[in-house]
Amino acid sequence: MAGTDTGAGRVLAAGVQESNGLTARWLRALDEAPSVLSGAGAWPLLAVLSAGAAGAAREELAAATGVDPDRALDVVGAYAALLESSACTRFSTGLWSSPRITVRPEWSGRLPEAWFGRLTGDLDADKAALDAWAAERTLGLIPRMPIELTPETVLVLATALAVRTRWASPFEDAAYQPTGGAWRTDRPWLGLRRDTGDLGALRVVDGVTIVAVEGQDDVDVHLVLGEAASAPAEVLAAGIAAVGREGTGEYGPGVSVHAEPSFESDPAPVLRLNTVAFDVSADHDLLRHPGVFGLATALTRGAHFPGVSADPLEISDAAQAATATFSARGFEAAAVTVAGMRCTGMLMPQGAERRVVRVDVDRPFGYLAVHRPSGLVLVAGWVREPKRFQISR
């Protein structure tokens, strides 16, 4: 990462490393590898929460994010500036609070580029406002905020991350119909193929094959292929650990080398990439794995966030909605991560319930959208079924 010899650069580099570490731990904690998730969207939200937390909740959030809560808002500010400096990424934070509580300005005033709104108590109107914010901040890729508001909700904190880039070297698309393996089918998939002279885009690291598909801006997508028997989370974790590292050779899973005729007198070697298009989305309930995100204590009754408000607050919801599309021309992805809070001991109408969303998805190869200058993994996922090939009419 350029400029990491400065103090600010070292702080930012640590934030990138810790965010990537959270992505890897999240993947390992899931029963099945997801189609898409974004540790890069969840990490700054948790860091912001840590800055307002106290006691065991503060310690757990600090352990999950890897940053000192006293410095967390500064680190998140640098992190947001990094993403905003990119021509193809967008990062936003949003905060909505009820008039029933008072939010400390020394905490909220340091949120990077935050949108501030009010929760009016009209659940339908408030949800519509949150959904509109999610859609606008993700370039229309995610049309809703992944939270169900209840009469108990007094504060909502969210981050939105969007990526949109076109390939430096586009693919050709064509029907792809394997004769064996997991993708054998009577209906063809939408295959993508391209030849380039950039053999350096191929790396084999720790037994996984990684091909970097370069974007025109500063985001690349790493396609990560492991052995057939390898666990998806381990393949993706190996891909994350390999960001910025050199490969050990060109022979790995899915790689073969052969000669073919050429009409050139001195033909240059070619890297031929055959892959598939995909369009995936997923919802994640972060509270299914509270230990990964440092939220175990914050879920219990108590005044866990005195730095956010003098009113006793606890976490009621934490979720993420994410989407990613890989096509012949480029890549786009987005994630909205949200935490809801309720006030401990506040009298509320009876019968309020929290909606819990369970998502179970798995895919045969992994992908990582990586911010090239910093190595930050923006989104990660596992693709099981690619898009179907359709004949143009």
TrEMBL record:
GO cellular component labels: extracellular space
Chain ranges of the Serpin domain: 24-386
Entry GO MF terms: serine-type endopeptidase inhibitor activity
One Pfam family per UniProt: Serpin
InterPro entries assigned: Serpin_dom, Serpin_fam, Serpin_sf, Serpin_sf_1
Similarity remark: Belongs to the serpin family.
Protein name: Serpin domain-containing protein
Upper lineage: Bacteria, Bacillati, Actinomycetota, Actinomycetes, Micromonosporales
